[in-house]
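Hi all, posting the design record for the shared folder.

TITLE: backbone redesign
STEP: 1 of 1
STRUCTURE INPUT:
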């Protein structure tokens, strides 16, 4: 249960804070004025279509993360920096999981990565073309790649921690992340950050020192004036990162040595973004933004030793380590106009997004070609694109209440497309030696997509919504929203939301909401198909992934995918006393018909399965299906205090925590005609939902400034995380850990500053994987760790503004 004794520290803080801060007759009853110097009243626009209001005045909890906060981090990876700033957000660093090593997903409140909607300037962001099909958090999901947005382009990030499907449509079950781009007519800045890991790696089989993962990031932004009042803000970022390796010694070779590469991938990436707005005549404004990112990354698969059946000694006399290279091209843009139309504030826009992933398998071979095999393969391509056209109108109506009633109406049309492009024949074929069934066909590590995998599909969706907010009194505000959506592939969905807030005094308020939500099955989940090498119990298994509508999947128990549905309930309080404020929000999220990837169904399961799979040349099969039901409950706490002194400087204190419990209440059952029927969702998948993200995360930080000198100190506690095995005896634990980060800054002038820092000062690691569970030495730590497994990271940053 989430309210167990192990959470007493966080809950004790919550109780004490509420008792101390609740209103009392002796307190002043006048509303505190916004303090623009402390950041206590950041203005947000996410979650409601009314005039922007402060973070403490919203009807639902919203975290506000400034660009400065994101930039004062050791990591320049946006998703990692965001996870350091939002307690309910986690960002794992999977390794040896094919494309997921390069396109890494984030999770909010322990839910699936694709159950959080991502917006850019309040418009829907496109998802990645990748669907996660291997053993990582978010297995079976196709989520937005947060790292396609550089921090230099951002002015502010807003994280709405509440269900919002009735406002924004599909995917907003856990909440919404709204990325608001910089808006500047003048000025600019540049920075260069250089960092590297300096760590002692303690694995189950030995200890060694590592200095790797050197990262160089250069960023630049500039504001330009367009006419008298318009703006154009351009930003650019370049990142180069060397790989890290935290594998254990391989006991299969003598003498024992590291044969694998388990860690962060090598990355070479550049990104451009532009954001603009120009006034037109009659009070109208044209606006738009555009972005492009090119990312080349390379990670490793499992090593093939010299005596491996699929090694060719003539090519690799000492064995080989296949590399999986992903070239990601991400394109996005939006155009719109807004102004007054017949007494309504109107906004018309069109948004486009496209993500293309080209796969290459390097330093590998296709054993069925023998010594004539290529060592580099074009392994195919995944492409996802999206066009969204929206029209929104809002109007305020005076009704004799404490304020105007706000009504918003809108429609949205969306077209999505998904493609799989085949690789070169040698990447998937069985060559001249293909008659030898002991040899695996295709490129080792990542076989290419085959002609039978090729798809080119699209669908349309149409939505209409209505939002209303009514201030019944100066204390009570009630809001409601309804939305209907119709998809060309599965049908329609309806969602609704009711929210309320009551301000007992200017210092104390209660807020809560009840909503329904849904998530449409993605095209990636509906149509992804491939043949690949999957690790099962330490062995490589040639596996086919089939669409739920394919004949093979239907025999094994698949049915056409249906949307996920949810019910969200939240209740919270807001307390503010001068420069101190605290928000406490409890929630429960019930989700039905979650879409997951089934277990591997091996040919050895039964003669019927063998007769089905043998003609396809695979040993196992899997597919996407509905049927997982969960209940997620928890508490978010965010407390902030600003202390200004004359001689000791200014202090900004933040204490934030999340306690979260996920319980799987139902799992899919098979509709297969096979006898016996296979298990579709086993223990390891159930426990991944329940234990794969921290049940407790607490972060305490202080920012201090005194003249030209400033510093940040942060301690983050992560509760134990489990990477489950087939039995409890094979579970791998991270253990409870607290990471400490320090950064010091010196401003040489108003324009030039230097920062130096260390993340994970104490060089903390998750618990090492026991040698008995790591026979190859590859996975020395669990990749479920919410803070990675790379150790201490030191960095320096030079920044210039003008």
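Okay, here is what came back for every position:
SEQUENCE:
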């Amino acid at each position: 249960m989430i309210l167990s004794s192990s959470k007493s520290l966080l809950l004790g803080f919550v109780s004490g804070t509420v008792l101390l801060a609740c209103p009392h007759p002796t307190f002043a009853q006048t509303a505190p004025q916004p303090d623009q110097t402390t950041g206590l009243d950041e203005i947000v626009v996410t979650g409601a279509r009314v005039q922007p209001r402060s973070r403490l005045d919203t009807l639902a909890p919203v975290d506000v993360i400034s660009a400065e906060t994101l930039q004062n981090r050791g990591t320049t990876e946006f998703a990692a920096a965001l996870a350091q700033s939002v307690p309910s957000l986690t960002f794992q660093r999977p390794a040896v999981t094919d494309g997921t090593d390069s396109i890494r997903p984030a999770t909010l409140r322990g839910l699936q990565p694709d159950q959080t909607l991502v917006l850019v300037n309040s418009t829907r962001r496109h998802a990645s073309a990748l669907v996660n099909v291997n053993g990582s958090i978010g297995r079976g999901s196709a989520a937005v790649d947060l790292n396609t947005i550089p921090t230099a382009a951002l002015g502010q990030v807003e994280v709405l921690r509440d269900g919002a499907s009735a406002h924004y449509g599909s995917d907003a079950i856990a909440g919404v992340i709204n990325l608001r781009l910089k808006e500047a007519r003048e000025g600019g800045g540049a920075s260069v950050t250089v960092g590297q890991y300096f760590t002692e790696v303690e694995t189950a089989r030995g200890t060694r020192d590592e200095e790797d993962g050197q990262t160089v990031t250069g960023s630049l932004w500039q504001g330009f004036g367009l006419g008298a009042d318009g703006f154009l803000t351009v930003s650019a970022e370049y990142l180069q990162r060397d790989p890290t390796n935290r594998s254990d010694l391989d006991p299969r070779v003598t003498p024992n040595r590291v044969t694998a590469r388990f860690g962060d991938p090598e990355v070479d990436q550049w990104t451009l973004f532009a954001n603009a707005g120009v006034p037109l005549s009659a009070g109208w404004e044209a606006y738009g933004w555009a972005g492009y990112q090119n990312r080349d990354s390379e990670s490793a698969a499992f090593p093939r030793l010299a005596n491996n059946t699929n090694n060719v000694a003539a090519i690799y006399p000492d064995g080989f380590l296949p590399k999986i290279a992903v070239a990601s091209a991400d394109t996005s843009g939006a155009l719109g106009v807004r102004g007054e139309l017949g007494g309504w504030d109107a906004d018309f826009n069109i948004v486009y997004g496209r993500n293309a992933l080209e796969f290459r398998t390097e330093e590998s071979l296709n054993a069925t070609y023998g010594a004539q095999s290529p060592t580099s393969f074009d392994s195919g391509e995944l492409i996802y694109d999206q066009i969204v056209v929206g029209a929104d109108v809002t109007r305020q109506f005076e009704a004799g209440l404490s304020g105007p009633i706000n009504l918003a109406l809108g429609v949205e049309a969306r077209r999505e497309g998904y493609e799989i492009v085949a690789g070169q024949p040698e990447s998937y074929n069985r060559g001249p030696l293909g008659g030898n069934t002991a040899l695996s066909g295709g490129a080792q590590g990542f076989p290419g997509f085959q002609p039978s995998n090729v798809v080119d599909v699209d669908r349309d969706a149409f939505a209409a919504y209505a939002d209303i907010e009514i201030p019944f009194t100066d204390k009570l505000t009630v809001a409601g929203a309804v939305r209907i959506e119709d998809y060309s592939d599965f049908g329609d969905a309806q969602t609704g939301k009711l929210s309320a807030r009551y301000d007992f005094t200017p210092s104390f308020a209660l807020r809560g909401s009840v909503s329904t939500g849904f998530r449409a099955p993605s095209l990636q989940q509906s149509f992804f198909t491939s043949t690949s090498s999957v690790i099962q119990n330490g062995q490589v298994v040639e596996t086919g992934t089939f669409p739920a509508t394919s004949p093979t999947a239907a025999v094994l128990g698949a049915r056409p995918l249906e949307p996920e549905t949810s019910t969200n309930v939240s209740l919270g309080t807001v307390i503010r006393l001068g420069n101190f404020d605290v928000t406490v929000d409890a929630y429960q999220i019930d989700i039905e018909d979650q879409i997951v990837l089934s277990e591997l169904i091996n040919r050895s399961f039964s003669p019927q399965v063998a007769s089905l799979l043998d003609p396809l040349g695979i040993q196992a099969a899997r597919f996407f299906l509905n049927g997982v039901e969960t209940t997620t409950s928890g508490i978010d706490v965010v407390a902030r205090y600003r202390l200004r002194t004359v001689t000791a400087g200014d202090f900004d204190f933040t204490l934030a925590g999340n306690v979260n419990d996920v319980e799987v209440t139902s799992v899919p059952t098979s509709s297969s005609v096979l006898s016996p029927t296979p298990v579709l969702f086993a223990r390891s998948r159930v426990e991944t939902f329940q234990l794969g993200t921290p049940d407790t995360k607490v972060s305490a930080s202080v920012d201090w400034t005194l003249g030209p000198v400033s510093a940040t100190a942060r301690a983050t506690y992560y509760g134990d995380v489990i990477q489950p095995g087939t039995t409890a005896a094979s579970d791998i634990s991270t253990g409870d850990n607290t990471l400490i980060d320090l950064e010091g800054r010196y401003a040489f002038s108003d324009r030039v500053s230097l920062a130096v820092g260390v993340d994970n000062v104490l060089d903390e690691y998750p618990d090492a994987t026991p040698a008995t569970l790591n026979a190859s030495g590859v996975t020395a730590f669990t990749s479920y760790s919410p803070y990675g497994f790379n150790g201490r990271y030191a960095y320096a940053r030079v920044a210039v503004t003008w």
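COMMENT: The chain has one domain: 5-801.
Let me know if anyone wants the other runs.
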